[in-house]
Amino acid sequence: VDHQKADWVSIHKRICQLLIPVRTSLPFVCEEQRKHGVEQLVKRQKYIIDVTSSTAQKFILDGEHEKAIPAALHALRFSTEVYGSSSVQLVPAYLLLAEAYIGVGHLLQAAKYVSQAQWIALRTPDCSVAIQHRLHRSLGLLCAAEGNFEQALYHLANDIYLASSTFGLKSIETSGGCFHMANIFFRQNKMDIANSLYAEV
């Protein structure tokens, strides 16, 4: 019951009406109708992925990590249905789940999701730089949560480099990595470096 309530508050009330046409199978008279029906189904599923992903991201940014989990799970489920279980398109959903679980302190579960994302990225030769930078950010956050600051700084440095090469040094995407790196220097009591990074953000 608690899980149903959490799911409803997090995401289900937002996508409930969207699920009806996705879960209802329609009879097709001809091949053209079947093809059109499949196209419409995929379009609806992709829209649900966008809604659930952005909702999970918003909860994470608001610090409501527990509420982000059901939304991120829906994003993963629909991404798997649309793209298959080993597609690079699943990486963003895995990383959302990892960040949500880091936020609630379930580091073992977070590590499993990060590992899954990393495995898919490594076996995808043309994995985009945008996905690689997000992967390094999640690895950095996980290492920081585990208290492994040196490894966290290594991953966040990669995050900043990849984000700046894609989006530019002054982009909001790059500033996220700088902010997380500043937090680590703050925790290490290296205030000069932390403050210069906060000022950059």
From TrEMBL:
Residue runs in coiled coils: none
InterPro entries found in the cross-reference section: TPR-like_helical_dom_sf (IPR011990), Zinc_finger_MYND_domain (IPR053248)
Source superkingdom: Eukaryota
SUPFAM superfamilies: TPR-like
Protein name, per record: ZMY12 protein
Lineage: Eukaryota, Metazoa, Chordata, Craniata, Vertebrata
Gene that produces this protein: Zmynd12
